[in-house]
Write a structure and sequence with these properties.
Elements (H helix, E strand, L loop, with lengths): L13 H10 L2 H21 L4 H9 L3 H8 L24 H18 L7 H19 L6 E5 L5 H13 L5 E6 L2 H10 L7 E4 L12 E7 L7 H14 E12 L4 H4 L3 H10 L3 H5 L3 H7 L6 E4 L4 E7 L3
Parallel strand pairs: 1-2, 1-4, 2-3, 4-5
Antiparallel strand pairs: 5-7, 6-7
Helix pairs in contact: 2-5, 2-11, 3-5, 4-8, 5-6, 5-8
The protein binds S-adenosylmethionine.
The site of S-adenosylmethionine has 21 residues, from α7.
Amino acid sequence: MNKKLKPDWAGKDMLSQFVNLLIHIKPIYQVMKHQARQVIIKTAEKNGVPWRKNYEKLAASPVQYHFDAIRNPQVTYPDYYKVPFHAYSEGNLCWKAAFEAPSATYSMALRVWKNESLTWEAAHDRLRGSFHNVLATYAPKEVGDILDVGCSVGISTLTLHRYYQNKQSHSVRTVGLDLSPYMLAVAKKLDINNEISQWLHRQAENTGLPDNSFDLVTLQFLTHELPHSASKAIFKEAFRLLRNGGAIALVDNNPKSAVIQNLPPVLFTLMKSTEPWSDEYYTFEIEEELQKAGFNTPVTVETDPRHRTIVATKET
Ligand SMILES: C[S@@+](CC[C@H](N)C(=O)[O-])C[C@H]1O[C@@H](n2cnc3c(N)ncnc32)[C@H](O)[C@@H]1O
């Protein structure tokens, strides 16, 4: 049984501080950034994800049209969001990040089972399937309205929507919400059958959506991109948006995962160099904070070797 609550390379530990020091040396950071991209691109291409073709197809599509239609001029970007993420100096606020996001998502799924010879489609199905299985057990049995917060290019939103749509006899209304109009423009482009009711450009902390209007709010791989203060505000907002009996469900890196804790130094340094809020994320007590936001005692399930799913219900 693994007793450590988080990796030594995150938080205030000596190792963590040493890695941070390295990352803050500009020439070293530049090399790290380049290497981190190579790890993701190599995993993708080795397993048949057509990285360049996906990029070119999106770049040639009418994404600018979707961008203009979706972008909400009233949105202001918080400081924590305007920092480099994933080796893009403009973080999530650029076309390059949005055009590469689908391939990067599939690459991420492949890395979970990197010792198995899975196709990228099978790895992705397994990743989402393990999350959906937990929802089947701990989220409400009947779901009418779903909000996928931090939906990025909408892959999480579409797979979640289809899962519920296929399982239930009545129709499901699903909304994807994100702070990046670039990501949302790509999401709209990939939603070729208009299955998703709305792609909303809003800040998750303050969505402007009505009280008690959703049965399920999901945060899929969002929390590790946030400082504590933003996560806490989003939990409160989710509580407000949920109907009585509804649930919030989060899936993200598992600080207690042996794989994550034992990442080789090169890999954890690369990971930290592209994820600016790692120290905050790995020291954040999600279950405790959900309860402070008003939710019932959450359930946590280790959904795969790297990730955990947390579900908490609103019962007032
Ligand atoms: C790693 S991606 C999520 C991936 C996606 N949910 C999936 O599972 O494939 C994180 C997303 O959260 C968005 N995001 C970060 N902070 C946000 C905030 N405060 N409000 C809304 N979206 C936010 C980013 O723009 C980015 O698209």
